[in-house]
Amino acid sequence: MDLRRLALVVVTVAVTVVGHGKNLSALRAHDIRRHGRLLSTIGVDLPLGGNGHPSETGLYFAKIGLGNPSKDYYVQVDTGSDILWVNCAGCDKCPTKSDLGLGLTLYDPKKSSTSSLVYCDQDFCTSTYDGPLPGCKPNLQCQYNVVYGDGSSTAGYFVKDNMKLEQVTGNLQSRSTNGTVVFGCGARQSGELGSSSEALDGILGFGQANSSIISQLAASGKVKKSFAHCLDNIEGGGIFAIGEVVSPKVKRTPMVQNQAHYNIVMKDIEVGGDLLRLPSDIFDSGDQKGTIVDSGTTLAYLPSSIYEPLMTKILSQQPALNLHTVEDQFTCFQFAGSVDSGFPVVKFHFEDSLVLTVFPHEYTFQIREDIWCFGWQNSGVQSKDGKDMILLGDLVLSNKLVIYDIENQNIGWTEYNCSSSVKVKDESSGAVYSVGAHDIGSASSLRIGGILTLLSIIIALLHSSIA
Ligand SMILES: *[C@@H]1O[C@H](CO)[C@@H](O)[C@H](O)[C@H]1NC(C)=O
Ligand SMILES: *[C@@H]1O[C@H](CO)[C@@H](O)[C@H](O)[C@H]1NC(C)=O
Ligand SMILES: *[C@@H]1O[C@H](CO)[C@@H](O)[C@H](O)[C@H]1NC(C)=O
Ligand SMILES: *[C@@H]1O[C@H](CO)[C@@H](O)[C@H](O)[C@H]1NC(C)=O
């Protein structure tokens, strides 16, 4: 399940005939009028739940409201893909139960008074598919198909409807407001997305493509093209704010331009105070696209040329350690005492001197009282040009405030207490308000189910071991 959220293939052009056509120019004109009214941007608070422990939830999700009347949906927050989709009524293989203890809801466009279909000649469709669709005729629906890193996929058609947003209106206060967005109505799920282990209602892609919710809300003038997450791996949940976070201030590193994901440039890796000696071209030769930052991936994936020296250096501090492999996937060991005093801190250095510090209690996880496993994974994943890719997930992103400033094309972070709050600017009033942490859906069943969840997750990881 782990790499699932990194979309590898987003676009499959396909259109189907729809029974009843609507006159769309009227709808479009309405939208343009609507957009014209929204001049100043607001801050939005997206309530979060879940945690990054591979032996517990292993993912973070948000609660969103869609339709009129609005219904709640739990969706994984994923900075590695570009559309929002939810399981839809009549779907083939959509999960109806979740081992996460959350109640799942199928979205039914027929039961929402504000929903409308999206056709292949509409701007959203042509822009998502980079031009006119071959064979597009009036009344052909705009379809989507996303294939994720583990080979699981979702397919369906786009709909337009209201999304309920929690507009930040005061310190730790919000009020519901509406935005119109286009999202996928899931009709066919395959692989892990069709199973009930860790099932959610869908995935909320926070990528920078025009099709993502952040881009749509920004295009309509509702929000700034900027957001931040603070994933709390200690208490669970955390903070997810859309808009300009003005406090705490964070140091930034530029995004690599024209990439499908959020990529940044790694320069060095430091383990316990020593720089790893790595081949000089490892981070940036030729077409190498840098390091991918992806909240939808649980662990951190490194090519062998980095993974091996990193593990050797980490283990050199514990020469007597007895390693064993669990489920062909994890390197595990018996250890009593504090991992933070037994193992070194790992620091990734990025362009413009931004450092990502990962403590031993973050890069290890406990599966039994005295058995620990390393979260680092040897990726073997190759990008299109054959270079290994570096993929940093929740393992290293948790317990930090991470800011994605799409407008200024940079990413920044700072160590942060994700159970506290951040300050977001509301441009419509000029005010600065606190946005606090949430931990939704943290039912006790989550914790009690820990061991069972672990088993299903390990099986899921096995199935998805990245080619
Ligand atoms: C849609 O409606 C507009 C205005 O109401 C009209 O001018 C246009 O011809 C209609 N288009 C179609 C395809 O019916
Ligand atoms: C994405 O949106 C921007 C701003 O609205 C626009 O300039 C650009 O052409 C769009 N890109 C595509 C591929 O449609
Ligand atoms: C959202 O929009 C619907 C339909 O336009 C409306 O009935 C509802 O009151 C709106 N909700 C909020 C919170 O603005
Ligand atoms: C984090 O913030 C919360 C809320 O302000 C506070 O209760 C908690 O003690 C803080 N944790 C740490 C480690 O400072």
TrEMBL record:
Molecular function GO labels: aspartic-type endopeptidase activity
Span of the signal peptide: 1-21
Chain coiled-coil ranges: none
Swiss-Prot/TrEMBL keywords: Aspartyl protease, Glycoprotein, Hydrolase, Protease, Signal
Biological processes per GO annotation: proteolysis
Family of this protein: Belongs to the peptidase A1 family.
Protein name stated in the entry: Peptidase A1 domain-containing protein
Species the sequence originates in: Gossypium arboreum
Organism lineage: Eukaryota, Viridiplantae, Streptophyta, Embryophyta, Tracheophyta
